[in-house]
Amino acid sequence: MNMTYSWHVHYDMMVKKAKGVLKVTNELLKKAEELMKKCEVASLSSIDETGYPRTAAMCSLKTEGINTVWFSTGTISNKVNNYKRNPKAGVCFSIDGNNVTLMGNMTIVEDMNIKTELWVDWFIKHFPLGVTDPNYCVLKFESNYIQAYIDDEFEELYLD
């Protein structure tokens, strides 16, 4: 393969991308945020005690932009135990072939005001003592990386 040719092709692609990257990125991030809000179920991954990823389908309670996602689970769940050991997490939202994948860190929330704000009536089936049920746990995911594939456009970004 001609290295000069490869470099020029790569350079041309970079220049073309750079000219439209801010527009594409902003549009794609808006679409990513919309997709995350529409998606009721997300795939949530933690790292188990053996170092392998463990993924579970979870209802997303609330999203705040593309940076923060809130979930609820039982305090005695494998997920909570995994996040206590290792807060690294992955979240994937997918609708109709479009997807947003996030990497970041999970925090176990103890604040009763937040737990009350995020309480949903159907939780009573899982947490019969209500918002004060000791098994009711809220998880806060904060992303530091996003990969989005929406409407045949792909972008990945590291977030501050």
Structural features, described:
The protein is an alpha+beta fold and 160 residues long. The chain has one domain (3-158): Pnp Oxidase, Chain A. It is 32% helix and 41% strand. It contains 3 helices and 8 strands. Strands 1, 2, 3, 4, 5, 6, 7 and 8 form an 8-stranded antiparallel beta sheet that branches. The longest helix has 36 residues, at 3-38.
CATH domain class name: Mainly Beta
Q: What order do the SSEs take from the amino end to the carboxyl end, as H and E?
A: HEEEEHEEHEE
| Helical run tally | 3
The level of helicity is 25-40%
Brief synopsis:
The chain is α+β, with helices and mostly antiparallel strands and 160 residues long.
Helices and strands in order:
Blueprint: H1 3-38, E1 41-47, E2 53-59, E3 62-64, E4 68-74, H2 78-85, E5 88-95, E6 98-109, H3 112-118, E7 136-150, E8 153-158
Antiparallel strand pairs: 1-2, 1-5, 3-4, 4-7, 5-6, 6-7, 7-8
